[in-house]
Amino acid sequence: MISENALNAALNAYDIEAECIANMKAYLDKEQFSKAVELLSSAERIGAAGCGHSGIACQHFAHLMCCIERPARFISPAEAVHGATGFLQKGDVMVFASRGGSTKELFPILDICKAKGVSVITITENLESPLAKGADVVIKQYVNRETDKYNMQGTTSTTALCMLFHALQTAVIEETDYKKEQFALIHPGGAVGERLNNKSL
């Protein structure tokens, strides 16, 4: 059996993240969010980039977009400056995720997007940061605190970022009138695919 301190810390993590999710809506700028949804709904291609936990969440976001037939890919900051930004063309959208808004690895990608006419959406806590000021649309990320006792691991902040990505996908589904029949075609696998493709249901 683990120590009582460890168990209590684990249980407290639920409360910390639940509080974050409960309070996030108050920080949502409807105008900026709407602009982001419009860009994502109309772009031919969508890129997403971040470092560390934010980068992992961006990979999830790219998959979410592909699942509703908005062609997207995660662009590694390392590969971006070695040709990967060739994926993006004028009129496309690039999504940056950086809690502090000052992730230096993303700055060259921002410059490339500006030069190519690619619209930029930045998700960050810091609206005065370089990545926020360089963006066409900024979505504020709210985080109360991370779950560990040192407030340093990317836990609650990752959950908050994923919540924003989930909200964006949910809105894009409505904006593009995406149908479950479309998803059934591209997702025949697993329990979801079986349910969607079962004509008797």
Keywords:
9 helices, globular, 51% helix, five-stranded parallel sheet, alpha/beta, 11% strand, 201 residues
Number of DSSP E strands:
5
Number of helices: 9
The global form is: globular
Largest sheet: 5 strands, parallel
- What are the segments in which pLDDT stays under 50 over at least 5 consecutive residues? none
Mean pLDDT: 96
Class of secondary structure makeup: alpha/beta
Q: What helical percentage do the residues reach?
A: 40-55%
Oligomer: single chain
SSE order, one letter for each helix or strand: HHEHEHEHEHEHHH
What does the radius of gyration come to?
18 Å
Strand percentage lies at 5-15%
Could you tell me how far the N terminus lies from the C terminus, measured between alpha carbons in angstroms?
A: 45 Å
Structural write-up:
This protein has 201 residues and is an alpha/beta fold. The chain is 51% helix and 11% strand. It is built from 9 helices and 5 strands; from the N terminus they run ααβαβαβαβαβααα. The chain has a 5-stranded parallel beta sheet, sandwiched between helices. β3, α5 and β4 form a beta-alpha-beta unit.
Brief write-up:
This protein has 201 residues and is of the alpha/beta class.
Give the SSE layout:
Layout: H1 4-24, H2 30-42, E1 46-49, H3 53-67, E2 72-74, H4 77-80, E3 93-97, H5 107-116, E4 119-124, H6 130-133, E5 137-140, H7 156-176, H8 180-186, H9 190-197
Helix pairs in contact: 1-7, 2-7, 3-7, 8-9
